């Protein structure tokens, strides 16, 4: 019975030893092997054999692309405007041993690097340039941190600016500025319209005055021609003239009597003599 127990123990020990010596690495991963606490080799996908109890696998690293969120942060532009910006980085580990031994936590390290580079790049730009130059910021970010993380065996495939917006205070200030600008344009447009209306009104009065003057000249010429014709027609005869003048005189008194201010109209008793008086005869 005791001998059977020893055999079973040896069998279990052999199975455990074999299991510890054989390592299956899945596709898309690499395992780091340490021998007696020191880096020994990197296991690639497939079946690998290590020395049990001597070799250890303390790190398992993915070789797939890693999506790394860069948290939002406040960034001050060159013209002292505050904006909120965040990003996302796509990285790939090409040298697992450098990634695990080169830096304590490569995800935090890369996040800090991107945030620092983003503050530096935007800090050299004006607010308007920062809001309209995502591609330029992206290119500078990639250029600025690619060499740094390459020392950790990590490749930066790309980095994208997700959001870059003015802070709440800046948005309010920009809205007020835009409203003031629209109000200014409305005032200018209204003043320009009033100016054009005044010019058109003055032009209208000028044109009307010119036409009135021409009409008066025409009427004067017509009156002069009429007087000349009447003079030629009546010659030295007095009665037709007195008749016409008397008719005009009566018409004038009739119009005067219809005026609202006229209370009483008195016609002369001797109308012919009154007309002769007008002719001074």
Structural overview:
Helix 3 crosses helix 5 (about 135-150) and helix 7 packs across helix 8 (about 270-280). The termini are far apart. The protein has about 280 residues and is α+β, with helices and mostly antiparallel strands. The mean pLDDT is about 85. Strand 6 (about 65-75) and strand 7 (about 80-95) form a beta hairpin. It has eight helices and eight strands, in the order αβββββββααααβααα.
Helix share bin: 55-70%
Detail the poorly predicted runs: none
Biggest pleated sheet:
3 strands, antiparallel
**Radius of gyration of CA atoms, rounded to a whole number:** 54 Å
Shape: rod-shaped
The pLDDT mean sits at 86
Topology of helices and strands:
Layout: H1 2-21, E1 22-25, E2 29-35, E3 38-43, E4 46-49, E5 55-62, E6 66-76, E7 82-93, H2 96-102, H3 106-123, H4 127-132, H5 134-150, E8 154-166, H6 168-234, H7 239-257, H8 271-279
Antiparallel strand pairs: 1-4, 2-3, 2-5, 6-7, 7-8
In short:
With 281 residues, the chain is α+β, with helices and mostly antiparallel strands. The protein has helices at 2-21, 96-102, 106-123, 127-132, 134-150, 168-234, 239-257, 271-279, and strands at 22-25, 29-35, 38-43, 46-49, 55-62, 66-76, 82-93, 154-166. The chain is built from eight helices and eight strands.
Task: Jot down its keywords.
58% helix, 3-stranded antiparallel β-sheet, 281 residues, alpha+beta
